[in-house]
Every structure is written in structure tokens, then in C-alpha cells.
Amino acid sequence: MEASGALGLVLGVDPALLSIVRLSLVVSASATLLAALLGFPLGALVALSRFPGRSLVIVVLNGLMGLPPVLAGLAIYMLLSRSGPLGSLGILFTPRAMVVAQALLVLPIIAALARQVVEDLWSEYRDELTALEAGPLLRMTTLLWDARFSLLTMLLAGFGRAAAEVGAVMMVGGNIDGFTRVMTTSIALETSKGNLELAIGLGIVLLAVIVLVNALAWSIGRWAGQHAG
Amino acid sequence: MLDRARDVRTGDSAAGAAAPGAERLLWLRDVRVERGGTRLLDGVSLEIGPGRPTVVVGPNGAGKTTLLKLGMGLLQPSAGQFVRTPGMRASYVFQKPVMLRRSAAANVAFARNAAGLGAGPDAIERLLALVGLAHLGARPARRLSGGEQQRLAIARALAREPALLFLDEPTASLDPAATKMIEDIVASIALRGVKVVMATHDLGQARRLAGDVILLAGGRVAEHAGGESFFAAPASEAARAFLRGDLVL
Question: Which value does ipTM take for this structure?
């Protein structure tokens, strides 16, 4: 009964469901983009530079890949709460805060993986780029560009992580109906209320999004393997 | 000429004591290169001037690649003096060139940009045509065959408009047809006034291309002579043994 009702919601394009899905995608995509903007250069920088404490930075970055979403939520909550250092921005319990929290979650994944990929590529390119007298900035952009397919896959992995988490957005978004309610928080809420129809409907969409993203990642990897070498 | 010769790196205090003359592009004196406790080059004194290609021969581990990398500035001497005529741009083609993950044309354009030269389509087209790859400019570089990649590596090196070109065994893994193409390209580059310094295992190739030959053995110069006299009347026992095909270690 619930399942057919859920399917009806999905196929009938229920407007409430649609706005939840749209917000989920916008928040997670923005968070991933923000994380990539910071994470790719950060990863490349760590990969290409030698400084005291570098190993520690790498260990911490790798460790933060498994950062529990609730801790990311807690950190951003404290940062953005009225008495926090960035409280004056007044963005707690808005989609912006959700973007920041998810970006914090995705940043270590993107930075740590980019560091590894860029470092591997650097060991392959070092002699050539040195002989071609490429400066530090050109080296970095070249390595990032030539790792583009791997980085794109990371981007999708980061998006998957962001879209699937519930703890961080719940804490800093507040799960406000029609404003900060996304797929994962809705599923949690509707399930607890016993409204399984909507929960299952959203579950179907969420699953479809994640499968789609993974299929895209796989296709890109395959295409790159065949065409870009 | 003393003031024009830049002391690239010196391993002792005699820096600039005896600078090379105008006709010397590379000048080494008692150069030693050590890596991890191994002497790759030991007491090498050499002068390399302009003109036809200088071909470096010798067994594996003799120091050919080390000598080329030193000339390019990719390695520094542990001791001794090494001077390259200043203001002279050099390029290097590695034995196994690494192609950037982009098109053949973009690889050439990258080299020009990195060297601060214009990368207009005409310049790229001309460089690709020079190595017979004009029709493959849009192809991803890593999809090219071994011989094509080697030629592209030469085009990329030439894109920097070097006065000096180092080639490390450019035909090591190529068949005779691909080898012939590379040799023709090298000969035409040399005619354009680019000084080629090339390592090879192929004695026939050395005979065909060399203006002068450097025989390295065990990190030392066993003989350095004009191409014709090296093959016709080798002065050292090592060179005679090498030319006979004996194992020179």
C-alpha cells in the first residue's frame, strides 16, 4: 500500500517532493563545488610542496575523509550559531549553512584523493615538466588538468557523500519544512512519523540519484580510458 | 669571453678560472657525478662545440644519460666544473618520453607556452609537419605509436626553439623504418643549426650521424674523436674493443 502510494508520489511528480529533491541536489552540488574549489588546489599544493609536518597534514587529511557528519554539523553549528565567530552572518538554519557543513564533509575527501593522484602523476611528469621549464603554477595547473578524469570521479564521489548524509544538514539546517528540508532529513522525519509513503518515495529518488551519479562516474572513467589514454 | 660564460654549477673553488672559448657550447672539467654513493661520472673533461651532432656511445651504465642530463642542467656535478654557454636554450628528449594527457598539438603548444613563445596554430602546424605528424595533431598524444610519440617528443623539444638538443637513445625501441624517420629528422635539425647531442647504442646510427663521437666506459671518457677517425682509426684500446663488438664494461 505504502509502496504504490510512494510510486504515485514519484511518478505523479508531487510538488512538495519535487522541491525537496531540488533543494537536496542544489545544496549537495553547491557543497561539492565549493569543496572542489578549495580541495583540488589544496591537494595539489600538498602533493607538490615539501614542508615540515607534511606527513602529519597528509595523515590528518586522510583521516578526515571519514569525518562523521554529526561532527561536521557540530563544528559548523558552533561556527555559525549566534554566539559563534561567524554568528553575525545569520545563516544558521538556512540552506547556506547546509552547503558549508556538507562542503566541510566533502573537502577532506577531495583534497586527500587529489593529493594522491597529483603526487602519482608528478612522479611520472617530473622530468618532462622540469626539462620544459614549467614554473610552479604551470606545474600545478598541468597536473590538475591531466588528472581531470580522476578528479571528476572524485567530484562525483564527493557529491554522493554529501547527498547521502543526514546528520550535518539536520543540525545546521534544522529540517524546516519548505525551507531546509532535504531528502535525507525528510526520510528520517517521515519514517518517525509513520508516513512511510513519502519516506519510500524520497528513498527511491535518493537511490536513483546515487545510482545515476555512480553510473556517470563509471562512464567517465571508461570513456577516459578509451579516448584520453 | 670570460664574462659571457656563465658558471652554471661548480663543485670546486676554481670557478671561472678557465672559461670556454666562443666555439664551445659545453665545457666540463674533472666532473664527477655521484648518486647514492655510486660514481656515475668520474673525472670527465670534455668540450662540445657547434656543428654536426655529437654522439655519445658506450655500454649500459657508462654514464651516457648522466652526461646528457648534466648538460641539460637536470643534474648537478658533485665535483668539478661544468659550463654551458649562457643564453642558450636547451631541450631534452627522454629515452621514454612522457606525453601529456592531451592532443599531440596541445603537447607542442604546451612546450611553447612554457618557454614563453607564441603558440599560434601556424607554429604548431609547422613543428608537427617537421616530424611528419601534421595529420595527427588532434589525436590524443598517448594514442600515438611508439615511433610517433618519439617524433612528437622531438617536435615538443624543438617547440622551445633550442640551440642545443639532447636526445637520449631516441630510437632504442623502434623498428628500422621508424628509426630512419628519426635519423632523417635529426639530420635536418642539425642542418638548421641546432646542436644535437645524442646518446645511442646503435653504432651504425653513430656512424651515419656523428660529427664527433664520445665513448664513455665506467663513467669516464674512453675516447672523444671526430666521427670519421673514431670509426676508421680509434686511438684507444677501449674504442677498438667497442667497435669490434667486444664487451666493454
Answer: 0.86
Contact status, residue B80 vs residue B9, Cβ threshold 8 Å: no
Chain A residue whose CA is closest to B96: A128
The angle formed by the CA atoms of residues A119, A120 and A124, to the nearest 5 degrees, is 110
**Cα B232 to Cα B212: distance, rounded to the nearest angstrom:** 13
**Chain A residues within 8 Å of chain B (Cβ atoms):** 124-125, 127-128, 130-135, 138, 142, 145-146, 148, 227-229
Chain segment A206-218, per-residue pLDDT in tens:
999 999 988 988 8
Whether the CB of B140 is below 8 Å from some CB of chain A: the reply is yes
What is the spatial distance between Cα A229 and Cα A218, in angstroms, rounded to a whole number? 16
Spell out the SS3 assignment of B53-109: CEEEECCCCCCHHHHHHHHHCCCCCCEEEEEECCCCCEEEECCCCCCCCCEHHHHHH
| B100 close to A (CB below 8 A) | yes
Nearest to B114 among A125, A133, A148 (CB): A133
CB pairs under 8 A between A and B: 48
Between positions 29 and 58 of B, the ones with CB within 8 A of A are none
Global pTM reads 0.85
Q: Is B115 close to A229, i.e. CB distance below 8 A?
A: no
Among the partner residues B98, B102, B142, nearest to A128 by beta-carbon distance: B98
Shortest CA distance from B158: residue in chain A: A132
The order of strands in the sheet holding B6-10 is B6-10, B79-84, B26-35, B38-48
Q: Report how far residue B70's alpha carbon sits from residue B237's, in angstroms, rounded to the nearest whole number.
A: 27
- Distance between A177 CA and the closest CA of chain B, angstroms: 48
Amino acid identity of residue A107, one-letter, is: L
* pLDDT tens digits for range B135-178: 999 999 999 999 999 999 999 999 999 999 999 999 998 999 99
Q: B61-98: b or e for each residue (b if 16 or more CB lie within 10 Å)?
A: ebbbbbbbbbbbbbbebbebbbbbbeeeebbbbbbebb
